[in-house]
Write a structure and sequence with these properties.
This protein has five helices and 14 strands. By secondary structure, it is of the alpha+beta class. It has two domains: 81 residues, Gyrase A, domain 2 (2-Layer Sandwich); 149 residues, Cyclophilin-like (Cyclophilin, Beta Barrel). The strands form four sheets. A five-stranded mixed β-sheet has the order 7-6-13-5-14. The protein has a four-stranded antiparallel β-sheet with strand order 1-2-4-3, covered by helices on one side. A three-stranded antiparallel β-sheet has the order 10-9-12. It is elongated.
C-alpha cells in the first residue's frame, strides 16, 4: 500500500489516494490507523479527516497548496509505515440472508425469473468474502467491498422512496444492509434480520472497518425464526474462525 496521488479539492481540502494490496480488508484498517496518526500531527493544522474508497479527504484549517503539504504527508506516511504496529486481527462475521423472492425483487427481475441463474448467483455470492470498507449515507450503513465484477449490479436510475430495514442490497462494486427504512437506489437482493445500527444493542454498531463478512443463504422459515429471536433481544451475528 502506498500514496498514489494528492489532489486539491478546493482551497482548504486535499484528497490523498492510496493503492491497495491483495488483502484490502487489512489496508482499510491501515488507512484508519494512518488517519489517526495524521490527526496527532499538530503541524498539519487539520480540521477534519474523512475516509472513503482508499482515499483520505483532508480538511485544513487554512488554505493550503499540494506542493507545500506533499513532502509532509509523504514523510508522515514513511514514518507511519516504518513504525506501524502488528496488524490487527480482522473479525469474520457470518451474515444470514434470505434470498426468497418476497425479499429479493431486484434479483429475480434482473435474471428475468430464471431460477437456475438466480441460484447460481446466490451460490457464487456466498462463496466470496466481503469486508467493511467504510460507513456513510446513514448511521451504520456499511459499504461492503470485495464484490467481483461478475456479481456487481448497477444502481437504479430512479431510487425507491422506501427500502425496508434489513434489506441486503448491491450497488455497483458494493454490498450493504439498510440499517433503517429509507429511500434507496440499490438493487434489493435479500433480507437479513441483523440490523447494522440498533440502539437496543450494545454497541449499536458491531462492525468495524476491515471486518470481513461471509454471506450465508437461509430459508424464509429460518429467517422468520431469527427475526423473531432478534426482535425479542437484539444481538450480533455469529463470529467465524479466522482464516
Amino acid at each position: 500500500m502506498k500514496i498514489e496521488q494528492l489532489k486539491a479539492y478546493g482551497p482548504k481540502a486535499l484528497i490523498v489516494s492510496f493503492s491497495s494490496t491483495d488483502t484490502p480488508y487489512k489496508d482499510v484498517v491501515r488507512l484508519q490507523d494512518f488517519a489517526r496518526h495524521l490527526k496527532s500531527k499538530k503541524a498539519l493544522a487539520l480540521e477534519d479527516i474523512l475516509i472513503s474508497h482508499f482515499n483520505l479527504n483532508l480538511v485544513f484549517q487554512k488554505p493550503i497548496s499540494v506542493s507545500a503539504v506533499s513532502p509532509q504527508l509523504h514523510r508522515y506516511w514513511e514514518e507511519f509505515t516504518t513504525t506501524i504496529a502488528a496488524q490487527k486481527t480482522n473479525v469474520v462475521w457470518e451474515l444470514p440472508v434470505c434470498f426468497d423472492a418476497a425479499y429479493a425483487p431486484d434479483l429475480y427481475t434482473h435474471f428475468k425469473q430464471d431460477i437456475p441463474r438466480v441460484e447460481a448467483f446466490i451460490k457464487a455470492l456466498c462463496q466470496h468474502e466481503l469486508y467493511v470498507h467504510f460507513f456513510g449515507f446513514l448511521p451504520g450503513f456499511a459499504y461492503l467491498g470485495g464484490l467481483p465484477k461478475e456479481l456487481q449490479l448497477p444502481r437504479h436510475g430512479q431510487p425507491r422512496l422506501q427500502v425496508p430495514k434489513g434489506a441486503f442490497a448491491l450497488g455497483g462494486p458494493y454490498a450493504a444492509v439498510y440499517p433503517q427504512a429509507s429511500p434507496g437506489g440499490w438493487q434489493l437482493i435479500g433480507q437479513t434480520p441483523f440490523i447494522f445500527f440498533d440502539v437496543q444493542r450494545t454497541p449499536p454498531v458491531f462492525l468495524n472497518p476491515g471486518d470481513r463478512i461471509k454471506v450465508a443463504s437461509i430459508s424464509r422459515k429460518d429467517y422468520l425464526a431469527l427475526q423473531t429471536a432478534y426482535n425479542q433481544q437484539a444481538f450480533a451475528p455469529k463470529k467465524l474462525p479466522q482464516t
